[in-house]
Amino acid sequence: MINEDSLIEQKLILCNQNIPLSSEEKHAMIEEAAKHYGKFLTALKHDWKNDPNASDTPMRVAKSFVNDLITGCYSHPPKLTSFDNVGDQAYSGLVFQGDIKINSICAHHHLPFFGKAHVAYIPGEGGKVIGLSKLNRVCDYFARRPQIQENLTMQIHSFLNEALKGNRGIALMIESSHLCCQMRGIEHDSTMITSKLSGVFMENHNLARSEFYNFVSKLGQK
What is the rounded CA–CA span in Å between residue 14 and residue 155? Predict the structure, then answer.
């Protein structure tokens, strides 16, 4: 049985928080959200109930938010498969993965922003390395919620810094286009870039930082 009181009591105080919900709880929330979105359309003077193209729109919108656009709000963080970086062949170089797809929505206007993330880390001896697909999962998990890009950048970095025990540094860059800028207001077609670097990537005259940005640049030349 669904504890309806718990659904009422638990609230996302900040847009980028999350409350893992069961399938039953998500279904109940979708039903409730659809009712309110129908009222929203009515307030905008849309006769959506009599429009064959819009009669099921409230339910579609509610489902798309819960199951796709902001699904990270209602899911557990991805489980990361990590491996000990030990022995004679312990890796000491830079691990880079770029062009990781980012799909999110802006917390201010609930319009999409989308682009790509570039992630790098240097494992420490006796530290951890993680499966390559996990970097994609981490980025997608934190992107799937109402968000501002600055917070998204910090969340991904913090999560990886915690997961990659003993790392010598983590570098993250996100570049994306925001429809809240392209479709409203000034309506400019621009790209927003944010980054967060730590450890050896922040040291003066460090080759790791140059190597990271060089890798990102090479992807842009494809």
Answer: 13
Residue type, 182: Q
* Cα radius of gyration rounded to whole Å, the chain: 21
pLDDT of residue 8: 44
Q: Say if residues 141 and 75 touch (Cβ distance below 8 Å).
A: yes
Mean residue pLDDT of the chain comes to 90
Phi, psi of 38, rounded to the nearest 5 degrees: -60, -40
CA 216/CA 205 separation, integer angstroms: 18
Tell me: the pLDDT tens digits for 65-92? Answer: 999 999 999 999 998 888 888 888 889 8
Per the CB < 8 A criterion, the answer to whether 18 and 12 are in contact is yes
* Strands annotated E in 64-201: 82-84, 95-106, 112-122, 128-130, 146-147, 169-178, 192-197
Question: What single-letter amino acid sits at 99?
Answer: D
- To the question of pTM greater than 0.85 for the whole model, the response is yes
